[in-house]
User: Which sequence fits this backbone?
């Protein structure tokens, strides 16, 4: 038996809400929480690109890390995150900054003469 | 850029006393007195010299005498009125290179330079510049083990390797070895640890740390008399973790800035009016009754160009 027009409208509305809800979940957003940002960071001897990452306090972030040459390490001591970056693979670190300011990150896997220059800065506003 | 010092001037000035610093470890009575006083050594006492971070093979504006500084340091130590019982090098003997053959050439040259030291008893260890790109392979070929122990005049010395792993880890096998070694020492044994990197988080933002160093410190804290001497940071630094004192040494190549004092850890620039500023070697006088280590920092200083 065909659903009544009223009921069809209700079903369509409910279906749309469901799709919208699925879309919200896919972007990592649920009601009451900030959307997670993903930022690509590429390491090579001897720098990170970008070398300056601007974040917002309270907004969760995932850094997607890769290396163009040899094994590297990403370490942001103030956020207690680090990861080995293996050639050919992506690494991820996720955190939510809780304080504003400027915070150093570095390569913490020795990678040659120039390793000591491999610092960047995370700016939290 | 001024002219480099000739060897005679270096030797004259390197022999000047720096600040006499008493380690002042908690639980040790009455640190030595003020600058200028020499520690009086009785028959049971001995002293050794720490040299660090020669970075043989480095070339750059930070040290226009990079080809001569190590030799001058060797000559200065040879000129000491009383020769030390032994000399320890706390790593970064050579400057890193991607070329395995060049790495071995630098290590061979380093060996031939320090062969001129009068004191034959020398203890070496790698820094990350020596070992991190090949997991210590060349170092072991040319110098031997990267971690080991030795005993001298009642003191138990432990050399730890926190550099052959490029991720600055001691690693589980070495930590197990350390635990086993410490288990065989009396609880109040005088223990001295030599290593390259700080075992604690001195300034991890500049890679001045050991990833699993806290585990080594936890093991060492079970003993009541432990002192650590290390290098890596190219400057003097003295800090405690609990009752353990950690003493970083100056380098023999270029000084580095204080932790976080500038945006990057680039070498402090060479000053031709103060050549060798911030470089030096260290004499450590070990007293047994009471147990103490008196540290004499011997700066390398020079004349104006």
Assistant:
């Amino acid at each position: 038996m065909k659903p009544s027009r009223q009921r069809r409208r209700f079903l369509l509305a409910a279906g749309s809400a469901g799709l919208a809800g699925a879309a919200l979940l896919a972007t990592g957003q649920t009601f009451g929480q900030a959307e997670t940002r993903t930022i690509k960071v590429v390491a090579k001897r001897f720098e990170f690109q970008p070398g300056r990452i601007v974040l917002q306090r309270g907004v969760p972030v995932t850094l997607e890390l890769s290396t163009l040459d040899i094994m590297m390490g990403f370490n942001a001591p103030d956020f207690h995150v680090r990861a080995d970056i293996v050639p050919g693979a992506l690494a991820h670190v996720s955190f939510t900054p809780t304080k504003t300011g400027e915070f150093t990150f570095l390569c913490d896997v020795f990678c040659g003469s120039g390793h000591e220059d491999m610092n960047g800065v995370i700016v939290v506003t | 850029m001024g002219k480099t010092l000739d060897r005679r001037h270096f030797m004259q000035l390197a022999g000047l006393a720096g600040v006499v610093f008493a380690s002042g470890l908690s639980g040790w009575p009455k640190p030595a007195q003020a600058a200028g006083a020499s520690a009086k050594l009785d028959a049971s006492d001995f002293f050794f010299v720490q040299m660090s971070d020669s970075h043989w093979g480095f070339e750059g504006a930070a040290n226009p005498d990079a080809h001569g500084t190590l030799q001058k340091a060797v000559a200065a130590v040879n000129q000491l009125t009383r020769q030390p019982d032994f000399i320890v090098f706390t790593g970064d003997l050579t400057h890193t290179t991607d070329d395995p053959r060049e790495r071995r050439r630098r290590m061979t040259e380093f060996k031939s330079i320090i062969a001129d030291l009068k004191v034959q008893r020398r203890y070496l260890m790698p820094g990350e510049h020596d070992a991190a790109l090949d997991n210590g392979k060349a170092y072991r070929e040319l110098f031997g083990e990267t971690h080991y122990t030795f005993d001298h005049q009642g003191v138990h010395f432990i050399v730890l390797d926190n550099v052959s792993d490029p991720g600055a880890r001691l690693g589980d096998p070495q930590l197990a070895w350390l635990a086993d070694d410490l288990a065989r020492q009396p609880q109040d044994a005088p223990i001295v640890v030599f290593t390259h990197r700080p075992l604690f988080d001195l300034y991890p933002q500049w890679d001045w740390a050991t990833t699993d160093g806290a585990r080594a410190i936890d093991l060492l804290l079970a003993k009541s008399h432990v002192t650590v001497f290390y290098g890596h940071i190219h400057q003097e630094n003295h800090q405690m973790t609990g009752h353990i004192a950690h003493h970083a040494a100056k380098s023999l190549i270029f000084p580095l800035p204080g932790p976080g004092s500038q945006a990057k850890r680039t070498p402090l620039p060479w000053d031709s009016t103060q050549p060798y500023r911030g470089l030096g070697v260290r004499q450590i006088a070990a007293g047994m009754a009471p147990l103490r280590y008196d540290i004499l920092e011997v700066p390398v200083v020079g004349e104006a160009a």
About this structure: Confidence is low (pLDDT under 50) at residues 1-44 of chain B.
